[in-house]
């Protein structure tokens, strides 16, 4: 082996750390993009009327005055979808 083909332990370790950091950064950005995506009203079986006591206005996902953390678009405070979670 020539001296130009030898790798020091330090250079291999630093390269490994840099590669792992770049891969981790890619995972974080793709998770962030996934977390920001909302589901369609059809996918969440959204309806403009409550399901008994279950309605958007008493759901943990509801963002007043008419938005949701899960469902895309404008929603009614009296609506309902399958993502309904009771506020505590």
Summarize this structure as a short list of keywords or feature phrases.
High-Potential Iron-Sulfur Protein, Chain A; 2 strands; mainly alpha; two-stranded antiparallel ribbon; 2 domains; 88 residues; single chain
Description:
It is rod-shaped and about 70 Å long. By secondary structure, it is mainly α. The chain has a two-stranded antiparallel sheet. Helix content is 32%, strand content 5%. It has two domains: 8-37; 38-88, High potential iron-sulphur protein (High-Potential Iron-Sulfur Protein, Chain A, Irregular), CATH 4.10.490.10. The protein is built from one helix and two strands, in the order αββ. 15% of the residues are buried. The mean pLDDT is 82.
Q: Tell me what the CATH architecture of the largest domain is.
A: Irregular
Give the helix tally.
1
Class of the largest domain in CATH? Few Secondary Structures
Number of separate domains: 2
The fraction of residues in strands falls at: under 5%
Structural class: mainly alpha
Helical content stands at 25-40%
Cα shape: rod-shaped
Average pLDDT over all residues: 82
Strand runs, count: 2
- The strand line-up of the biggest sheet is 1-2
Taking Cα atoms only, what radius of gyration do you get, to the nearest Å?
24 Å
Largest sheet: 2 strands, antiparallel
Low-pLDDT stretches are: none
Enter the CATH topology name of the largest domain: High-Potential Iron-Sulfur Protein, Chain A
Distance between the termini: 68 Å
């Amino acid at each position: 082996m020539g001296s130009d083909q030898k790798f020091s332990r330090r250079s291999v370790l630093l390269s490994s750390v840099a590669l792992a950091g770049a891969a981790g950064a890619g995972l974080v950005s793709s998770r962030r993009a996934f977390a920001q995506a909302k589901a369609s009203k059809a996918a969440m079986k959204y309806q403009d009327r409550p399901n008994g006591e279950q309605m958007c206005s008493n759901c943990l996902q509801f963002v007043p005055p008419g938005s949701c953390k899960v469902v895309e678009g404008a929603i009614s405070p009296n609506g309902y979808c399958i993502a309904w979670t009771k506020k505590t």
